[in-house]
Amino acid sequence: MPVSDFQTHPVFRRGVSAKVRLLVYITACLVVLVADLRFRYMESVRGYLHTVLLPMRSIASEPVKLLGNATDHFSNLGDLQEENAKLRQHQLDGAERLLRFDDLEQENAKLRELLGMRKKTRVKSLAAEVLYNVPDSSSRKIILDQGKRAGITHGLAVVDAEGLLGQVTRVYPTQAEVTLITDRNQAVPVQVERNGLRGVMFGAGQGLRTLGDVPKRWQQAVQSDIGPGSLILRFVLVNADIQPNDRLVTSGLDGIFPPGLPVAVVENVDREAGAFAHITCRPLGGVEKSFRVLVLGRMELPPPQPNPETGDPPLIPVPSKPVRRSEGGRE
């Protein structure tokens, strides 16, 4: 048996003990630390190691970054959706407020115009609103939200900011019916504002009802001019001084409509219709369009003049008391 094949049994094999190795390792670490602090030779080694390990660190940190970015993305997405919902609601609220502001602005403008009309009329007036149009194809009437309890009586004139609308024809406790000037049964005494020429204004109603009184050569033109909101000026001679675009106002001769209220403007004058001219007009007021109106009170008559000789007020006649007779014929 060769000598090289002889091996010592593990029980008899002995080396450096663990304590000695630990002491050697600690000593070596201390020597390296002291040398590094003294000579700074490990900085280049650390730099090389950092450069070599940087890709591995980047690859190892990618899953953490992806997870963090996904969390931030979904969190930001939820915040953006919530913010967008709030912005949409804010936009809707702003649009609604803008619409209300426009409505209030138009309403204030109409109220200011009505206030100006109230100052011009110089009579007591009551503001009212139009509830609805009377559903009757043969008439032109509206219903107001004020009635007898508010002081409205039969026959009062109704105007808007632009001109005359009609006359109160029926009165209820809380509502009133107004017949518009475009109704074929409504007549208004008017005069030309330019020269004072008088006439009577009638409503055209449905328009086609008045074509029988018009010459055939004018029916097509008049049919295109007369509509549901048109007027006809009657009892004006063919040689009268009236022209298109003349402005017509109330004359006040009937004692119902205060004088000077704007009524209509002349659109067409036919002087070949007969002894009287056939005149079609367009109403100035917002007939069947106005929402807020004024109901004008009656004109107050001036007080009677005193006696010029004595200066005493005139005597007001007192009606005599009726005499009752007994059954036997005696007083």
Helix/strand-derived category reads: alpha+beta
Give me the Rg, rounded: 52 Å
- Which strand order does the major sheet show? 1-2-5-4-3-12
Span between N and C termini?
186 Å
What share of residues are in beta strands? 15-25%
Number of helices: 3
Number of strands: 12
List the uncertain runs: 207-227, 318-323, 325-331
Task: List SSEs in N-to-C order.
Answer: HHEEEEEEEHEEEEE
> Which whole number gives the mean pLDDT?
76
Brief write-up:
The protein is an alpha+beta fold. Helices cover 34% and strands 21% of the residues.
Structural commentary:
The chain is α+β, with helices and mostly antiparallel strands. It is built from 3 helices and 12 strands, in the order ααβββββββαβββββ. It has helices at residues 18-39, 42-121, 216-225; strands at residues 125-133, 141-144, 157-159, 164-171, 176-180, 187-192, 198-203, 231-234, 247-250, 262-270, 278-283, 292-296. Strands 1-2-5-4-3-12 form a 6-stranded antiparallel β-barrel. Strands 6-7-8-11-10-9 form a 6-stranded antiparallel barrel. A hairpin with a 5-residue loop joins strand 6 (187-192) and strand 7. The radius of gyration is 52 Å and the shape is rod-shaped. The chain starts with 17 loop residues before the first helix and ends in a 35-residue tail after the last strand. The model is unreliable at 207-227, 318-323 and 325-331 (pLDDT under 50).
